[in-house]
Amino acid sequence: WSPDDVTVIFVLGGPGAGKGTQCARLVTDYGFKHLSAGDLLREEQDRPGSEFGEMIKSYIKEGTIVPMEVTVQLLENAMQASIEKEGNAGRKMFLIDGFPRKLDQAHAFERSVVPSKFTLFYDCGEAVMEERLLNRGKTSGRADDNLESIKKRFRTFVETSMPVVDEYEKQDKVVKVSAERSADEVYKETKAKLKERGV
Ligand code: UP5
Ligand code: MG
């Protein structure tokens, strides 16, 4: 794809920072397409006959990163399906949530699919994220919303995913939003920062 036809904004932030929550609002107001890498992996995990189901399950529970071939393919398929379904009249804008979480994924996606416009980064401390995730865990049914998995997810985020944010920061491609306040306030800041970037 060419960046003339397809715009991709990556949405990053620690586990429970509020990526999904903010993306849902952006979809309503801006007409973006929202693709969550985690949601796509969970769907693939539950798809009958998937050869990757068991593998995905164990990576998610351990809070580690699924091999990128799987995730990049799922994202590319979902983008293709969205373009085929609605045609490509006008420019397609995708919010890719929770991806890339590792430098090799970032490089592979930008080389083989399309370069990103920038990364929306939700900055949130671990204490706040932990409280949100434990709270969601009471009803989410997510296999990784328990204290043990949460700690592992934090560790992977710091060691493996932050280097992606740091690299994009050096290229002046990070739009940083503080994510500790209420969802309404975070959204307000998100909109203001997007405006500064001409979106
Ligand atoms: N909430 C949200 N915003 C709030 C606010 N401002 N104030 C108070 N509460 C707020 O929010 C989490 C909870 O907090 C919700 O209950 C919400 O109501 C509340 P949410 O919007 O869901 O946060 P989000 O950042 O989306 O958290 P999520 O748990 O989805 O983040 P993760 O990044 O951990 O999960 P993801 O689904 O992206 O990935 C899961 C796993 O998949 C990874 O650990 C990894 O194993 C695997 N994965 C890969 O291997 N590769 C990938 O590329 C992607 C994922
Ligand atoms: Mg999410």
From TrEMBL:
Written domain comment of the UniProt record: Consists of three domains, a large central CORE domain and two small peripheral domains, NMPbind and LID, which undergo movements during catalysis. The LID domain closes over the site of phosphoryl transfer upon ATP binding. Assembling and dissambling the active center during each catalytic cycle provides an effective means to prevent ATP hydrolysis.
Domain of life of the source: Eukaryota
Annotated protein name in UniProt: Uridylate kinase
Residues reported in the UniProt entry to bind ATP: G16, A17, G18, K19, G20, T21, R136, R181
Subunit structure: Monomer.
Enzyme Commission no: 2.7.4.14
Cofactor(s) in the UniProt record: Mg(2+)
Gene Ontology molecular function, alphabetical: ATP binding; nucleobase-containing compound kinase activity; phosphotransferase activity, phosphate group as acceptor
Family: Belongs to the adenylate kinase family. UMP-CMP kinase subfamily.
Positions of the UniProt region annotated as NMPbind: 36-66
Main location as per UniProt: cytoplasm
Keywords: ATP-binding, Cytoplasm, Kinase, Nucleotide-binding, Nucleus, Pyrimidine biosynthesis, Transferase
Coiled coil segments of this chain: none
Pfam families, per database record: ADK (PF00406)
Compartments, record wording: Cytoplasm; Nucleus
Binding note for cofactor: Binds 1 Mg(2+) ion per monomer.
Role summary: Catalyzes the phosphorylation of pyrimidine nucleoside monophosphates at the expense of ATP. Plays an important role in de novo pyrimidine nucleotide biosynthesis. Has preference for UMP and dUMP as phosphate acceptors, but can also use CMP, dCMP and AMP.
Reaction equations catalysed: UMP + ATP = UDP + ADP
Positions contributing to a ribonucleoside 5'-phosphate binding: R42, T64, I65, V66, G98, F99, P100, R101, Q105, R142, R153
SUPFAM superfamilies cross-referenced by the UniProt entry: P-loop containing nucleoside triphosphate hydrolases
Cellular compartments per GO CC: cytoplasm; nucleus
An example Gene Ontology biological process: nucleoside monophosphate metabolic process
